[in-house]
Amino acid sequence: MAGFHTLLPRPVLARPEPGHCVVDSAAEATDPARVVIDPAALPRPEAYRLSVTPHGIEAVAADAAGALHATGTIRQLLGPDAFRAADIHRGRWTVPCGVIEDHPRFAWRGVLLDVARHFLPKAGVLRFLDLMAAHKLNVLHLHLTDDQGWRVDVPAFPRLTEVGATRAGSWAGRREEGDPTHDGRPHGGFYTGDDLREIVAHARARHITVVPEIDVPGHSQAAIAAYPELGVTKEPVPVWHAWGVSEHVLDPTESTVDFYRAVLDHVVGIFDSPVVCLGGDEVAKRQWRESRAVKQRAVDLGLGSVEALHGWFIGTLARHLAGHGRRALAWEDILDVGDPPPGAIVASWRGESAGVLAARTGHDVVMCPEQHVYLDHRQSDHPDEPVPVGFLNTLERVYAYDPVPADLPAHARRRVLGAQAALWSEHLDSPRRLDYAAFPRLAAFAEVVWSPRHGRDTAEFVDRLATHHLPRLDALGVEYRPLSGPLPWQARPGVPGHIRA
């Protein structure tokens, strides 16, 4: 029990230091009731201080979230066995002696989970929240609607799930790889209101905010399939089986807006998040341009073009959310059609330039550039990498990312609320595929949004990850991508010697 180390600050993936103190049990070490909450002692939100001596563990936290982080760090220091569902540890538990003072760099440490393209059953979402909490991540952006599926039950509009939650099949592979037809396997699923309330409560207990997304006015083919009157042509369409940008867009009539006002009324009754995402990305406008009624609608609203209906649609629903005391989050595409609605948060996804522009002009920003933090993108150039979509986004590249762009002026930096990784699920059709895409890159991202930029060393991180953190993921049952590359059953289908994941 010799040795006392002052560790200031600590990364999110704690590594034991020399010198250990005996703890009678894991439960004793991680009991939240033993954490004293004292905002005066630690004025930063979510901060905590641990003191481990031969005489025991003392923990002080700025708030309840800090108390959770303190117990989470103790759990890390106890070793991999502390992450198992049952206590199988033999012998006495030991914790490194030392003092840890820690707090997050950013208030928004998020992950987008796309359950619209491929539905993830409720148990999978609850498990994912547990994994987020283990990494001190605190925002789950739940992408609930898209062209390929509508996943939230709205009793006033039952066809949204009766029709919109099921599609005839899924696009097999990618356009450049051959036949863009579906695989013939029906896919579907949705969450009841009680399912979502349970998810929100599970998240709340872990100090995670669940931000729901209802995507408008594009990425709406599943809703139009359920209620064709929402579309411009009013003609029946199927729930889409392909990936990409559908040409079917919402008709910007007052009745359509009223429909979505009612949907949002239902959503805010379930989710306690102060933020609701309205999407606003990749809005195909051909149908608008070809519709006399839509062009007249733009004239009647005093807009200069049908393209301006994009911003009008988002702004109208953002004002409705404001009436509920909620802020709108929207993808950076809304900057293409004018100023964001008052109070709206801009998600910068195509790169960082939109985030820089938004922050410079006084808007809050969440950085989520696909080049750096889209975790569905390929992890290596190896031919056995499963469905090698998008940018090459290695573990090291994720860890090197800084959410505050170097060219952002000092006065605008406070507008960067944080960053958000993304798990788009076109090719993530099972929890195993989700694990493979997320980890260990999500562990690297968690440290990026928690720890200071200075002092980060990639080689040191990879060593700490391999030595200390991957065994924790093993104990949790996470089927992550090994650092050496995919296992045979994780590899790309069709590669000689490998089998389909």
Automatic annotation (TrEMBL):
EC number(s) recorded for this UniProt protein: 3.2.1.52
Gene3D superfamilies in the record: Chitobiase/beta-hexosaminidase domain 2-like, Glycosidases
Beta-hexosaminidase bacterial type N-terminal domain sequence ranges: 34-103
GO cellular component: membrane
Swiss-Prot/TrEMBL catalytic activity: Hydrolysis of terminal non-reducing N-acetyl-D-hexosamine residues in N-acetyl-beta-D-hexosaminides
Region (Disordered): 168-188
SUPFAM superfamilies referenced in this protein's UniProt entry, alphabetically: (Trans)glycosidases, beta-N-acetylhexosaminidase-like domain
Single GO term (MF): beta-N-acetylhexosaminidase activity
Family: Belongs to the glycosyl hydrolase 20 family.
Protein name, UniProt field: beta-N-acetylhexosaminidase
